[in-house]
Design goal:
The chain has 196 residues and is an alpha/beta fold. It is built from 7 helices and 7 strands; from the N terminus they run βαβαβαβαβαβαβα. Helix 1 runs parallel beside helix 2.
Length: 196
């Protein structure tokens, strides 16, 4: 499998104040993806789940690419042990580069930045602009309220029933690769029901 065909984008948090279970899940995901030979692309941070993800991948000699805005790097928020750290001008470019060429997106629990990244990915998929799997790792049931909110959006007619298949939910990092490989196919034809 080529690098570009095995590149997984991870959205995760930099908070160090959250429960250790979140950091443990991130570390384990890094290990699993590295063992699988996947290239990890993430936000480049060295703290919280971001740092744990990177440390997990590095512990298994995995390839991990960080993409970080210049202002964050200037604040020394970047991880120093990555395979590659790309410094970009702003948050928008960071997000674009993280998603581009990835064969899947995996979201770990996080705050506003992580949620914004995840919801943009779901929106792009709804519009047929991102066609690959999106997997939510639901550690400690963190994503339950968001999953319910999206279900309510379908129930209230803001989204189509078919939009439920845009994302997969797993409870542990060990289930991520299976969720990616078994995700329903998605195509540009999704535009036909994007506004239903």
């Amino acid at each position: 499998m080529s690098e570009s065909a095995n590149k997984i984008c991870i959205f995760c948090a930099s908070s160090q104040a959250c429960h250790e279970d979140y950091h443990s899940a991130a570390y384990r995901l890094g290990q699993i993806l590295a063992e699988h030979g996947s290239t990890i692309v993430y936000g480049g941070g060295g703290a919280g789940s971001m740092g744990a993800l990177a440390d997990g991948a590095i512990s298994k000699e995995g390839r991990i690419i960080g993409i970080i805005p210049k202002f964050m790097q200037d604040l020394e928020w970047g991880h120093s042990g990555l395979t590659e750290l790309k410094i970009v001008e702003d948050m928008r470019l960071r997000k674009h580069l993280m998603m581009s060429d990835s064969n899947a997106i995996v979201a770990l629990p996080g705050g506003t930045g992580t949620l914004e990244e995840l919801l943009e990915a779901v929106t792009l998929k709804r519009l047929g602009l991102y066609l690959n799997p999106i997997v939510l790792v639901n550690t400690r049931g963190f994503f339950d309220p968001l999953i319910q909110l999206l279900s309510d959006a379908v129930g209230e007619g803001f989204m189509d029933e078919r939009h439920h298949s845009m994302w997969q939910v797993v409870s542990t990092p060990e289930n991520v690769l299976t969720a990616i490989s078994t995700a329903p196919s998605w195509s540009i034809e999704a535009r036909k029901f994007a506004t239903l």
